[in-house]
Amino acid sequence: MLSASDVRAAAERIRPYARRTPLFDVKIGDRRVLLKLEYLQRSGSFKLRGALNAMLSKPLDDHIVAASGGNHGLAVATAASLLGVSATVYVPETVPAAKARRIEAAGARLVRHGAAFAEAASAAADAAARNQLRLSRLPHGWPARFPETCRA
Q: What confidence category does residue 139 fall into, taking pLDDT thresholds of 50, 70 and 90?
């Protein structure tokens, strides 16, 4: 379980690299809704925050490997570029072309592997282990907790 001090420490670690995105407080009907505009983040999603924090929480590696269907890979590629390290992102062969272009434009080496995310993730884990590189994992036990997303 994360504590408030863990969150504050993470915020300090990523502060030089992540944008502080706006928070809009709106009312829809009789309900208050807070809208955090993370699409304005450098990688276009909140996932950059997690990638930066994961990479900065330990001594920085020269190279990082990740598997993704898109946004996580783009976040890792962007974080690696910001931190001056190289990255390889494994994606399924079905990755949308626009997402693949953005990952490559961020400076990562893109490897298309397999018909489903599980195959790309397995190839990424094998490559990281074989080359003794850090593997950036998706949070919350992914994909084990969500096997339906990994079927071919």
A: low
Q: Considering the entire predicted model, what is its pTM?
A: 0.85
- Give CA separation, 115 vs 5, 53, 71, 135, in Å: 41, 30, 18, 21
Q: Could you give the CA distance from residue 10 to residue 18 in angstroms, rounded to a whole number? A: 11
Query: CA distances (Å), 35 to each of 38, 61, 115, in order?
Result: 9, 34, 35
Residue closest to 55 by CA, chosen among 40, 37, 42, 72: 72
d(CA 102, CA 121): 19
Read off the amino acid at residue 17: Y
Task: Report CA-CA distances (Å) from 73 to 14, 23, 30, 95, 133.
Answer: 18, 25, 38, 11, 16
Q: Is the pLDDT of residue 151 over 50?
A: no
